[in-house]
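Data availability excerpt. The first of two example chains:
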Amino acid sequence: MTDSTLAPVDVVKRRNPLLVWLIWPLITLGIYNLVWYYKIHREMRDLTRDPQAPVAGPMLVILLLGWTVIGPLISYFRTGHRIRQAQMAATGQATCNPWVGLILCFVFGLQIIYYQLELNKIAV
């Protein structure tokens, strides 16, 4: 397939939310969270075909500004908006709520499960 004919299922990868949230980060000592964050941003950029969409920037915020606490919270909130935009581009219906993702940041990092579940709706 050429880039212009990619279907959402070809761009956004379906992942198991529990593996993304708990298992792979435990096995890789937390490195997989950064890899996952980079990959979802790249997939959303490819889906929306927006050359201005950030890919490495959000991951670097988590990596380098994690100590500030506010930087990652803003990044996760904006990720919720990007997932919402990707859902609109793929299905015309947005169900992701960035506020829910932000609140889940404070509950065992469950925003990862929530965001992956929302991304899986695109990959169906």
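And the second chain:
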Amino acid sequence: MRNAPGDERIGAAATFGLLAAWALHDTEELVALPRWLRRNVPALRERFPAVPEAVWRRAESVDEREFAVAVAVMAAIVTAASTAGRLTGGRSAFYQSALNGFGLHGLVHLAQAAAVRGYTPGSATSPLLVIPFTLWARGRLRRAGVLRPTSPRDAALGLAAAAAATVASHAVARRVLGRRFR
């Protein structure tokens, strides 16, 4: 007999699966990003002259150590969100926002790859893992009756939260490594 809507349990696959999917995706970024930036920023600077010079300088200053520490900080954030999701049966607003932000950031990776007309770190796992996992997990939440209605405002907030977590992760990494902010 099938459970009634709302009775279906949200298991570890949908909650801690966020952490697993994030870890695989960020492994791609960890391996590729610092070298990709060093190799591509000069051409991107010429191609996109409207981007402020400070953005290009900041991108060029990210090295393997800083990026690894930032990824570790983000791991703590995603672990907390996944744990909140598991403990609340998927009802946690923090978990659901993190899930939405994860999926939307996958779309950002695809937009970046389209803008540069080629590979960008994160664009390989986004269509294969990030977006499918997010859609699958949201489907599980919906079938269980615990998915909060998502408005365009909620989507924008999820993406803004993902961006803020990224900025905060890099700020912590720079502080841990004793680097100045530029």
